[in-house]
Specification:
7% helix; mainly beta; globular; Tubby-like_C; single chain; Porin
Length: 219
C-alpha cells in the first residue's frame, strides 16, 4: 500500500492562541512560499470519520475526529495536539447551505461564513466566503473570496476579490505509478492567507459537495 504519510510520530504543533487567517499587506518578515499540505479524508481514530492533514515532512498539522459524536451539524478543526482551532457550524433555518466559523470552541461572533453557490448557469462557482461572519447578501456583493472548480475531482481554486489564486485543492501525484484516489489530495496555500483558514474551507466543501452518504445531517 502506498504510504500517505512518512512519519508515525505525532509532534505538537506550535501555534498562537488565536488562528491568524489573513497575513498583513507588508511582505517583511514573512514566508513568501506557499504551504503544501497532504489531506487524507480519514480520521486516525478507530471508527471515526474525519480528516488528517500532514505537512511536507510528514508531520501531523490538522485533524478532524468528531464526525461521529456530538452535534451532527458541528465540526471542530484541531491542531496536532488536539487543541480546538475552529468550530464550524451549519447555519440553521437558512434557505441556502451556509456554514459559520468560530474561534476555538466559541459559539458567538463568527469569524467568517461560507455559503454554497446555487446557479445552474454558472456551474463552476462552488461557494462564496464572507469574512464578516454574515451569510452573503443579494448578488454576493460582500464576498471576500470565491471558490470555483470541482470538489468531487479534487480540483478547486479559492480566489480573492482581485481574482488572485490564494489556495488550491489538487489531486495528489501518484507514487511509482500507484494512485491515492480521491481520499488523499493536496492543499496548496499561498502566503496571503493562513492554512487554518484554508483547511476550514476544505471541510465545508466536503460538507457541501462530498456526497450525501458521507455528509453530516443538519440538526
Amino acid at each position: 500500500m502506498t504510504k500517505v504519510y512518512p512519519k508515525a510520530v505525532i509532534p505538537a504543533l506550535v501555534t498562537s492562541d488565536k488562528p491568524r487567517f489573513f497575513t498583513e499587506s507588508s511582505s517583511a518578515g514573512r514566508n513568501l512560499n506557499p504551504v503544501v499540505l497532504t489531506v487524507w479524508k480519514k480520521s486516525l481514530l478507530f471508527n471515526c470519520d474525519g480528516f488528517t492533514v500532514f505537512d511536507t515532512r510528514g508531520n501531523l498539522v490538522f485533524r478532524v475526529d468528531n464526525y461521529a459524536a456530538g452535534n451532527k451539524a458541528e465540526i471542530v478543526l484541531m491542531d496536532a495536539s488536539g487543541r480546538s482551532l475552529l468550530t464550524i457550524r451549519r447555519k440553521r433555518l437558512s434557505l441556502t447551505d451556509s456554514w459559520l466559523v468560530y474561534d476555538g470552541e466559541a459559539t458567538v461572533n463568527p469569524r467568517f461564513s461560507v455559503t454554497k453557490h446555487v446557479n445552474f448557469l454558472n456551474a463552476k462557482s462552488l461557494a462564496y466566503v464572507s469574512t464578516t461572519g454574515s451569510p452573503k447578501t443579494k448578488k454576493n456583493k460582500n464576498a471576500a473570496y470565491e471558490i470555483e472548480g470541482s470538489y468531487s475531482r479534487r480540483c478547486c481554486v479559492v480566489y480573492d476579490d482581485k481574482r488572485r489564486r490564494i489556495a488550491e485543492v489538487k489531486p495528489k501525484e501518484a507514487v511509482r505509478g500507484v494512485g491515492f484516489g480521491g481520499d488523499v489530495f493536496r492543499l496548496v496555500v499561498q502566503p496571503e492567507i493562513d492554512s487554518t483558514f484554508a483547511m476550514a474551507l476544505v471541510v465545508m466543501l466536503d460538507q457541501m459537495f462530498g456526497g450525501s452518504s458521507r455528509r453530516l445531517s443538519s440538526s
